[in-house]
Amino acid sequence: MKIAAISDIHGNLGALEAVLADIARRGATVTVNLGDILSGPLLPCETAERLMTLDMPTIAGNHERQVLMHVPEKMGASDLYAHQQITAVQRAWIGSLPATLRLADDVLLVHGTPDSDLVYWMETVTEAGQRPATHDEVLARAGSVQASLILCGHTHVPRSVQLDDGRLIVNPGSVGLQAYDDDHPFPHKAETLAPHARYALIERMPAGWQVEHIAVPYDWEAAAALAERNGQPAWAHALRTGRMP
């Protein structure tokens, strides 16, 4: 089994098309989508339409839940833009997505952790900012979930961690947004320091799972210009640089 894992597209159709083309070139048994699909000042409708035709195994992220369940006056700008743009059919599609999914008996898809779409798994946020989580922190968030491979997203940071008990956790990074800031639970930034679209290829080999983290070039200037036209200059800077302004 050769799995292409994508996550956190955030309506960036240009980045998605570049990643899909790279996946097709490299070959994969299946491509899975780990959520946070549409939210952002880019192309939510067009991204939803493209993905709906592919019918790939897909789970919802926190932004799908927020777009559907939060009242508009409580939404952030990115969720509100997607909420205002998507069609009723697209809304029904994201409403049908599960929070977690078993791809196989020993392969689990989640967005944040098995228990939450908001909790960072392989990063820890303190008053000092964001840092890589320790092995013990990653283990504690894994709980008793049984799977040899667990795929997660949410933090936009590509990373793989193998636990002492053999479970492998892989975050493929973000297809569509390489930096952001947040204030929960403390103010922090996530930055990959490069604008490339990210995904991962994970293949079952005789000795275990093999992981390749991949960075794909695409026309990030076009995406940044669209973010600027839609009133999001911080997004534009993140799209161009992989850094927050």
Structure report:
With 245 residues, this protein is of the alpha/beta class. It has one domain (2-241): Metallo-dependent phosphatases (Purple Acid Phosphatase, chain A, domain 2). The protein has helices spanning 13-26, 44-54, 62-69, 77-85, 88-95, 135-142, 220-229, 233-241; strands spanning 2-6, 30-33, 101-104, 107-109, 123-126, 129-132, 149-151, 159-162, 168-171, 179-182, 188-191, 197-205, 208-216. The strands form 4 sheets. A 5-stranded mixed sheet has the order 3-4-7-9-8, with no helix packed on it. The protein starts with a strand and ends with a helix. The mean pLDDT is 97.
Provide the descriptors you would attach to this structure in a database record:
alpha/beta; Purple Acid Phosphatase, chain A, domain 2; five-stranded mixed sheet; four-stranded mixed sheet; 31% helix; 25% strand
